[in-house]
Each structure stands twice: as structure tokens, then as C-alpha cells.
Design goal:
The complex is a heterodimer of chains A (about 500) and B (about 160). Chain A is α+β, with helices and mostly antiparallel strands. Chain A has 17 helices and 23 strands. Chain A has an eight-stranded antiparallel sheet, with helices on both faces. Chain A has a five-stranded parallel sheet with strand order 3-2-1-4-5. A three-stranded antiparallel sheet of chain A has the order 7-6-8. In chain A, strand 9 (about 210-220) and strand 10 (about 225-235) form a beta hairpin. The longest helix of chain A is centred in the middle third of the chain and has 19 residues, at about 175-195. The two termini of chain B are about 40 Å apart. Chain B has two domains: about 1-80, Glycoprotein, Type 4 Pilin, CATH 3.30.700.30; about 95-160, Beta Barrel (OB fold (Dihydrolipoamide Acetyltransferase, E2P)). Chain B is about 0% helix and about 65% strand. Classes of the chains: A alpha+beta (about 500), B mainly beta (about 160). Chains A and B meet through strand 16, helix 12, helix 13, helix 16 and helix 17 of A and strand 1, strand 2, strand 3, strand 4 and strand 5 of B.
Chain lengths: ~500, ~160
């Protein structure tokens, strides 16, 4: 069944809502934004053709409200909904509600979401499709004694994982039996809070793995392709920070094999639209199926840059019933792309959230640079939502050139008012092991544990700049106290010692 | 105007004279011609001799945070003429734990009156969908615990006192 969308609702916020609105505008489709009370001034509201309020700031009362999102679609006359990632993107009940309302949900069928969204059923499907999964249980385990026995059988260290999870939420690494019950309580409560489902299962913890994923696209006619890999090993507490394509770790043989494995799973479950199959690859280059993300990924731009394919536009075309205009043989990886996730977090203070108003902003430009942002100068980064501000992406002919280009782009990126992860990326990109492509998922944690090795930091320029700032301030206001209180200064200096991140986000 | 500027543990004496964006700066006795102009809110173009920098200047309680591309440094300023250099960090006496950002208290990990170790988790605060454990600034008795589970707090709110 083919149809053309004339109006599409974007059931999301931030940079991904902006990304979808951009695709709509290029395709001549009118876009409808939805927004919470906190997001009235957000960029996605300003860029969309129409915008409708859907409730209070808390996402549970707005972006996660299926009834309000559907009502907004019906009010505006939108015939399709793009869910972005997070929020309702992998919610089978939402997809089914769209199907029932005759609105096209841009993603897989609701039954596929249900099947792949429950992680143990996804593991069973992967095994049936011929993929190797990480050793572990194939169903959630509620009984503590049985859980302990299973963990002994698998062998420590093990990972406790939320069955309804994904995106690194509700995960706990357990080193020994002593830690199991404590970790179980935490994982359950976190999973309950994040997904409304506290079920957990066990997997063996793979030591020193790479996190590498395969992008797939499949149409409603049963034709599918993979768009190669993304290397996502630069992570902190299971949250991805930097992604690239191609992976410097994969051989051509392994790339093709992982692509074929991904397509076997796509065929097995009758997958439609864009999706990603995540693997852990161990030091012997053996790939283990981790999970399938049945949606567009945050890091999709690196794939777009190396393949020249607009994934969001193709998602929309597939949902319209069009046949995929690509054959596997048409696709090549050209050059190299890197993405840095610019989060409102302070890398100097244990990645503490840093919400607030962006007082100055200038984004980099020039050859091969793309900034997928959800903010503007004067915008406020909200406390209520994920702290992703923007994704800085570069493309160049080689990996070495892409690293140089990203460092250049970071040197141009000026953002004041909040702290961001940009300084952290500058450290990563200068690290000899990263430059050599020699890293695994422990890289970021190890790097952060080391003192910053920057030899030449601009201390004298900083002293001059601060002194001139103070001089000018005093000229303007002679009445201001000569030296302000130092209590907040000491508090800031102590933050790192005082804080440890223990939670997770979507 | 003379300042003692402390950056990364190093203190430099900086004297500033001039006006309208043109300054003569003496850095530990070394004279420099400096011109400065604000390019955007908070972003300042700084030319020191022929060297060009663009820095972000953000006011901090006892000085400035100076943002460079991919790096930023905190500069603590003291007025050299007044001789009121910032006091050294106190190692004794009550230590206050304050909220580093606005958020919601999700868990209390200790109780008032308990003996705590330096670095021991006291309170879990949630902001931006992440839970963060706030730890004891030093060892001692948890004299006061001023928040309860579920409470919303502003940045800088006093959460606990360790004495």
C-alpha cells in the first residue's frame, strides 16, 4: 500500500526532532512539533511548521503520553508519526495505537517492537537466526536463589540487565556473588523506574570488548540492506560518547560476516524500516549479539556521512510503502566519519549534569563539518530531559584526516553558559591509543582516571583575560565588593571528589 | 590595578592599566600590550602582542572561568593591593555538602548522627535522568541531614553537614 504523507508529527524534542523536521522540509512534508510546558521556546518548536502543547515538563506527563501525542496528530491532521529515539520510539503499545488510529508509525510493526523490545525474546530470535549471543539466561529470573545459581553457572563477572531495557539503562556489572543481591536491588529499582518493569536477566560480562553495531534498512516488500558498521566503544558507564564509521578494528571479512548476520535477523523477524543490531566483539574478533534497537539511533549521522544515504528520508519513504531504492551492491563506505556527543555535562566534575542558559554559541563550519543541534544562543538546556545538546559530526577521506578535522571543529565550537563534554573529546582525539585505533569499551574510563596530560595549558593568557575582565568590571561598577566570597569556589572545586555518577539515562 | 591570579596552583601578579579595550599589562613584571574586544556575549577577542586568542569569560564567585577551545581554566583573583588572597582550603571544622545542580533527592544513604568516612555516599540526587551519588567531603559525624527523599532542591542548597 503506497501513500504520500503531506503532514508528519514528530513525537520527540531536542536535536532528533530538529533532524526529522529538516528531512520533512526537504521532502515537502509539513511538520508538526509537540512540546511540553518547559519546551515552549525550544528549537524544534521554532523550526516546525506547526506546534502543539502536550502537557507539563515531566516527560511522563507529556512526551510519554500516548493519548496526548495521538490527539495532537489527529488535531493537526498529521497522517504519520516519527518517534525519533527514546520516549515512545520502541513502545509497542504506542505503535499499535498508531496502527489502530490509521496513522503511520515510522518504524517497525508493533509486534516486532514487542518481540525485540523484550531482551530475552530478542536473544532467542537471534539464536534462531544463527547469531551467537553472549552466554546467559533466555528469560527473566525473579527468584534470587535461582539467579545466584545461574550466575555461578555462567561464571563471574556477570551483567545484570533489565529485560525491558536498552540504551544502557538498568545495567549492573557484578564481579562476585557477594555483590549480586545488592546489584539486583539497584538494577530492579532502576529498571522499574525507567521502563515500569523490574524484570532482569543475566549475561556473562565480556572482558575488554568492542561495541560495534550494524545499521539496517528494510522495506515493506521484504527487501533489506545493511549500511555497514558503527564503532561505539568510546563509552562511559554504558553511555556512548563518540562513534565512528568504519571501525578501525574490523577486517573486511568480519564486516561482511557481521552484515550477513544482521540481515539474517532482519529476515527472521520480518523487520521493517531502520534498525540497528548491536554486537560486542571480543579480543579474538568474535561477535556476540547484544541487542537490537528497533528505531533510528542517536549516532545515525556517521552512517549517513560514509554511505551518502539520508536515513531519515528513507525511513519516511519506507513508511509510505515505497520499495527501498538501494541494493547491497550499490552501497560502499566512502571515507571516514566521527561523531562527538556534545552533552551538557561537566567532564571536569565527574560528568555532572550542567543545565542552564546558553549565553554564547558559535558552531563550527567549513569543509566536512555537520552540527546536528537542538539549541540556539539564548536557549535553556532543561533539567527535565536527556542532556544531549548537539552532535558534532565530521567526514574526511581517512581516519587520520577525520581526527584532525574533528579537533579543528572542536577548536571552533564556542558555547558558554553551561559546561559540555567538548573538552573531553579533545583529550580522546589526542590520545595515541585512540589515534592508533587501539581501544575497547574501557577506554574512556581509563582515560578519565589519568591526570590530564596536556603539557601546555594557556595559564598566562587565562590570567591576563581574567585580570582584564575584573579590571573592566570594576571600572563599570566601583561599588562592587573587591573580592567576592570564596565559598562557592570551594564547593565547585570539591564537586569531583564528592560525586559519583551511579544512574543511567535513555 | 594589580591582581594576584591563581591558575592551576600557580600565582601570577598581573597589573592592568588602560581603557577602551587597549591595555598595558604587566605579567610578573613582563610588560605586554593587550587589546580586547567583546565579539559576542561573553566571548572576547584578546590580542596579546601579535598573538590572537578568543576566550569566553564567565564570572565565578572568586574570579573567572576562562574558556578556550576545547579547554577551560578557572582563575582565582585576589586584589594584591588589599592583600586579601583567598584563604587556603579548610581541612578542619564542619564541612558542608551542597547540591551541585538542581534536582530531586531520590535516596538517603546515611542518617543524621552516623559516623561517615571521607568519600562515603550520603545522598543520591537525580537530574537530567541520571542519578548522582553525593559523597562526604571528609570523615566525621553526619551532624545534619537537611533533606528527605523525594524533595526537590535548588543548586547550592545545603544538604548535609559533616563535623
Amino acid at each position: 500500500m503506497k501513500r504520500r504523507f503531506s503532514k508528519l508529527l514528530v513525537a520527540n524534542r531536542g536535536e532528533i526532532a530538529v533532524r526529522v523536521i529538516r528531512a520533512c522540509r526537504e521532502m515537502g512534508i509539513r511538520s508538526v512539533a509537540v512540546f511540553s510546558e518547559a519546551d515552549e521556546d525550544a528549537l524544534h518548536v521554532r523550526l516546525a511548521d506547526e506546534a502543539l502543547p502536550i502537557g507539563p515538563a515531566a516527560s511522563r506527563e507529556s512526551y510519554l503520553r500516548i493519548d496526548r501525542v495521538l490527539e495532537a496528530a489527529q488535531t493537526s491532521g498529521a497522517t504519520a508519526i516519527h518517534p525519533g529515539y527514546g520516549f515512545l520510539a520502541e513502545n509497542a503499545a504506542f505503535a499499535r495505537a498508531c496502527e489502530d488510529a490509521g496513522i503511520a508509525f515510522i518504524g517497525p510493526r508493533s509486534e516486532t517492537l514487542a518481540l525485540m523490545g523484550e531482551k530475552t525474546s530478542a536473544r532467542r530470535e537471534a539464536v534462531a537466526a544463527g547469531l551467537t549471543v553472549v552466554p546467559g539466561t533466555f528469560e527473566p529470573i525473579a527468584d534470587e536463589a535461582r539467579l545466584a545459581l545461574e550466575a555461578d553457572a555462567i561464571g563471574y563477572p556477570v551483567m545484570l540487565k533489565a529485560a525491558a531495557g536498552g540504551g544502557g539503562k538498568g545495567l549492573r556489572l557484578v564481579a562476585s556473588r557477594d555483590e549480586l543481591l545488592g546489584a539486583l536491588a539497584r538494577a530492579r529499582s532502576e529498571a522499574e523506574g525507567a521502563f515500569g518493569d523490574g524484570s532482569v536477566y543475566l549475561e556473562k560480562a565480556i572482558v575488554g570488548p568492542r561495541h560495534i553495531e550494524i545499521q539496517v534498512l528494510a522495506d515493506h516488500q521484504g527487501h533489506g540492506v545493511h549500511l555497514f558498521e558503527r564503532e561505539c566503544s568510546i563509552q562511559r558507564r554504558h553511555q556512548k560518547l563518540l562513534e565512528e564509521s568504519p571501525s578501525p578494528f574490523l577486517t573486511q571479512e568480519l564486516r561482511e560476516r557481521m552484515g550477513a548476520l544482521a540481515m539474517a535477523l532482519v529476515r527472521r523477524v520480518g523487520y521493517r524500516n531502520a534498525g540497528t543490531i548491536e554486537f560486542l566483539v571480543d579480543a579474538e574478533r568474535k561477535p556476540y549479539f547484544l541487542e537490537m534497537n528497533a528505531r533510528l539511533q542517536v549516532e545515525h549521522p556517521v552512517t549517513e556521512m560514509v554511505t551518502g544515504v539520508d536515513l531519515v528520508q528513507l525511513q519516511i519513504r519506507i513508511a509510505e510503502g515505497e520499495a527501498l531504492p538501494l541494493r547491497q551492491a550499490d552501497l560502499v563506505q566512502r571515507g571516514h566519519a566521527i561523531e562527538c556527543r556534545v552533552y551538557a555535562e561537566d567532564p571536569d566534575a565527574g560528568f555532572l549534569p550542567s543545565p542552564g542558559r546558553i549565553t554564547a554559541l558559535r558552531v563550527p563550519g567549513g569543509p566536512g563539518v555537520r552540527d546536528d543541534s537542538g539549541v540556539y544562543e539564548g536557549a535553556t538546556v532543561q533539567i527535565h530531559y536527556d542532556p544531549l545538546v548537539s552532535k558534532l559530526v565530521v567526514w574526511a577521506e581517512s581516519r587520520a584526516d577525520a581526527i584532525s578535522r574533528m579537533r579543528r571543529a572542536i577548536s571552533e565550537y564556542r558555547l558558554l553558559g553551561i559546561r559540555t563534554t567538548l573538552p573531553f573529546f579533545d583529550r580522546v582525539l589526542r590520545d595515541p591509543a585512540f589515534v592508533a585505533g587501539d581501544f575497547d569499551t574501557s577506554f574512556a574510563t581509563t582515560l578519565l582516571a589519568r591526570a590530564d596530560e596536556r603539557a601546555e595549558r594557556p595559564t598566562e593568557v587565562a590570567a591576563i583575560a581574567a585580570a582584564i575582565g575584573a579590571f573592566e568590571e570594576r571600572q563599570r561598577s566601583r561599588t562592587r565588593a573587591a573580592t567576592p566570597s570564596t565559598s562557592a569556589w570551594r564547593a565547585a572545586g570539591r564537586r569531583e571528589a564528592q560525586t559519583a555518577r551511579i544512574g543511567s539515562r535513555g | 590595578m594589580i591582581f594576584d591570579a591563581t591558575v592551576l596552583g600557580r600565582t601570577l601578579r598581573v597589573e592592568v592599566r588602560g581603557s577602551d579595550g587597549r591595555y598595558t599589562v604587566s605579567l610578573d613584571g613582563k610588560p605586554l600590550e593587550v587589546s580586547a574586544s567583546a565579539a559576542a556575549r561573553g566571548l572576547t577577542s584578546l590580542r596579546i602582542g601579535a598573538l590572537s586568542h578568543e576566550v569566553g569569560l564567565e564570572r565565578e564567585p572568586s574570579g573567572y572561568r576562562v574558556a578556550f577551545p576545547g579547554d577551560s581554566l578557572t582563575v582565582e583573583l585576589a586584589d594584591a593591593a588589599l592583600g586579601n588572597a583567598a584563604p587556603a582550603r579548610r581541612e578542619h571544622g564542619p564541612a558542608r555538602l551542597t547540591a551541585p545542580m538542581p534536582g530531586r533527592i531520590v535516596r538517603l544513604l546515611s542518617a543524621a548522627g552516623a559516623d561517615v568516612l571521607a568519600g562515603q555516599g550520603l545522598v543520591v540526587i537525580e537530574a537530567m535522568k541520571m542519578e548522582n551519588e553525593l559523597r562526604a567531603p571528609r570523615a566525621g559525624r553526619l551532624q545534619q541531614l537537611l533533606v528527605r527523599e523525594g524533595q526537590a532542591v535548588e543548586a547550592g542548597a545545603l544538604l548535609a553537614v559533616v563535623a
